[in-house]
């Protein structure tokens, strides 16, 4: 009797409601039409979920990233296998996130617009960590490192401002994202670039190499030749031991960083 009741009265109505559901026209979330029945439909669950999954994919296919993350999307993750969920995100969402970073996001220390990056990071909890890392490695860090390099090759860069800028960007990302190897590598390359600029001193504008965005490993430190050239104008030993990492950490802790040039101004 129960099976007949489900087959003849309930499931046809639920299936029709799912088929008729529209993101723009419907007053209730798709989840509220489907999830309450899942504990009761037994072996029919896959049939019911199949229609709902197809409807959800259709929504994501046409989704505008500027509208944020659909409110009930996180709940749907539980009814997809890990592989199917990743495939759906890679097909319908990740290309849009990449396009947003590539076409709309700019690194501008004077007037930074964070909106495009924030739209992308809003999706991070729904994506595998390696996908987030790949997005940032491909579309964020090349722009970020290029601007850092331009800043460091100025005749008299303000290293206090550089350190504050670095600390700001590390604060943008969650601890989980910062722990991703590709993200950690990107910020490490930035630190190495800054340390190299210190070692080169007034020669940095002509000798500081541009970041190599084809590298899969952190940028190298200054060459032995570069260190030798900088050594002639090196500061006291204690100052030599201060790295940008310690400067930034001190700034983040105290918000009262003082930084002095490590070579005589020309």
Automatic annotation (TrEMBL):
Residue ranges of every copy of the GCF C-terminal domain listed in the record: 1-148
Keywords recorded for this protein, A-Z: DNA-binding
Any one of the GO BP annotations: spliceosomal complex disassembly
InterPro entries to which the protein is assigned, alphabetical: GCFC_dom, TFP11/STIP/Ntr1
GO-annotated molecular function: DNA binding
UniProt protein name: GC-rich sequence DNA-binding factor-like protein-domain-containing protein
Biased composition (Low complexity): 218-233
Span list, region Disordered: 204-236
Entry's Gene Ontology cellular component terms: U2-type post-mRNA release spliceosomal complex
Domain of life of the source: Eukaryota
UniProt keyword annotation of Chloroplast present: no
């Amino acid at each position: 009797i129960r099976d007949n009741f489900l087959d003849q009265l309930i499931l046809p109505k639920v299936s029709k409601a799912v088929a008729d559901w529209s993101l723009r026209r419907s007053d209730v979330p798709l989840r509220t039409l489907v999830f309450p029945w899942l504990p009761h439909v037994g072996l029919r669950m896959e049939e019911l979920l199949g229609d709902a999954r197809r409807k959800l994919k259709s929504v994501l296919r046409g989704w505008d990233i500027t509208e944020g993350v659909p409110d009930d999307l996180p709940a749907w993750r539980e009814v997809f296998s890990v592989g199917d969920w990743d495939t759906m995100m890679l097909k319908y969402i990740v290309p849009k996130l990449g396009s947003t970073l590539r076409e709309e996001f700019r690194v501008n220390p004077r007037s930074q617009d964070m909106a495009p990056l924030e739209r992308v990071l809003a999706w991070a909890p729904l994506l595998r960590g390696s996908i987030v890392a790949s997005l940032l490695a491909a579309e964020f860090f090349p722009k970020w490192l290029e601007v850092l390099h331009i800043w460091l090759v100025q005749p008299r860069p303000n290293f206090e401002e550089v350190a504050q800028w670095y600390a700001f960007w590390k604060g943008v990302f969650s601890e989980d994202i910062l722990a991703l190897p590709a993200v950690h590598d990107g910020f490490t390359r930035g630190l190495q670039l800054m340390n190299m600029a210190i070692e080169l001193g007034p020669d940095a504008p002509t000798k500081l190499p541009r970041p190599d965005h084809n590298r899969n490993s952190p940028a190298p430190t200054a060459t032995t030749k570069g260190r030798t050239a900088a050594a002639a104008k090196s500061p006291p030993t204690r100052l030599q031991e201060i790295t940008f990492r310690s400067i930034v950490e001190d700034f983040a802790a105290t918000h009262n960083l003082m930084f002095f040039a490590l070579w005589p101004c020309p």
